Amino acid sequence: MPRDFDIGKYHDLDPVTRVLMGPGPSDVPPRVLRAMAAPTLGHLDPEFLTLMSETQELLRAVFQTDNALTIPVSGTGSAGMEACFVNLIEPGDQVAVVVKGVFGARMVDCASRLGADVIPIEAEWGRAVQPEAVEKALQGRQPKIFAVVHAETSTGVLQPLSEIISLAKAWGALVLLDCVTSLGGVEVKLDAWGIDAAFSGTQKCLSCPPGLAPLSFNDQAVAKVRARKSKVPSWYLDLTMVGDYWGAERKYHHTAPVNMIYALREALRIVLEEGLETRFARHWLHHRALVAGIEAMGLRMKVPPEERLATLNLVVIPEGADDLTTRRALLAQFGLEIGAGLGPFAGKVWRVGLQGHSATERNVMLFLTALTSVLRAQGVKVSGDGPAAAQDVYAHAGRS
Ligand SMILES: *Cc1c(COP(=O)(O)O)cnc(C)c1O
Q1: Atom of ligand 1 nearest to the CA of 24
Q2: Rounded mean pLDDT of 63-70?
Q3: Which of 94, 127, 350, 395 is the most exposed place for a label (fewest CB within 10 A)?
Q4: What's the number of domains the chain is made of?
């Protein structure tokens, strides 16, 4: 340490409490933070091994799957994506990827780096992909994998799945689903929907801090990994080895992030105590209230009603409002975080998350009230009473 190093200027950690209504992370319940602060066990301690098994059972319940290979990958949602691709893709494999936002484009990048012959299936930003577009793109091709984002966090679109999954299966492809912003927020049923592999993240609708990526592979996906001619090109994410730690052998591969797993276990317990159906209905209720408020104020939602995602809402920035000024004022005056637009939507929309613990009446009312105030301060005309319109939705729905 240099002699003049001033340790005194590094104060005790004391971050402010925000209201997290951006694209993630979402607000973390105090129970989850308390679980993280429990004493660290060894990653092979019998007591920890029990907690690992319980976490897997809870994860299967939330994913609605019986898949044995259901684990939290060490790393954020993107590590879950990479784990799926490095294990499933062999060089030269045809991989169809639906691209209709940032996260589809990220999958194309990831698959290309692994030497896949990528078949991008493009759809307009802010819209779902149509089955006809999928059918056309797959004509004459032999995709081994069909990858699609369920809830596109960059565009606020919930992708309808049943028809495109049937098409992909008819072509003999394994279906890979990004459910980072859907798991724990809107319905996800891996087994009933015929999903072969899926990944998610902890910090969106599960309301756990970022750091783990829930992942699940069914028998067909595991069989594709086992039939590889070449080794999985990532040592860290090789599921044949990671699976030996999470499976019956409990063989050391890398040190599990023990306290993050405590947090995930607690977050999953909270999800299942609430009940999946109740939880999904709660997200849709607050989404409806938010939309009613926004529209009453004379503002517009970006996505057509039938394609909207409850957990991530795109609000068109009204004329006269400055994107950055508005977001800064929400943060400074109200402690409220929302997200900026991405890609072609930068400067054009705000992204308002209603994810897990953040999806509450209090937050919706705060957001609408705060936005009204911040817009009026910029001289933007707000035509109607957003909070009152949201209250109307709550009054008619009964409380949740
Ligand atoms: C957030 C997100 C990711 C990436 O997750 P990170 O935790 O940021 O690595 C992937 N896909 C979607 C749809 C997301 O919203």
Answers
A1: 1
A2: 98
A3: 395
A4: 2
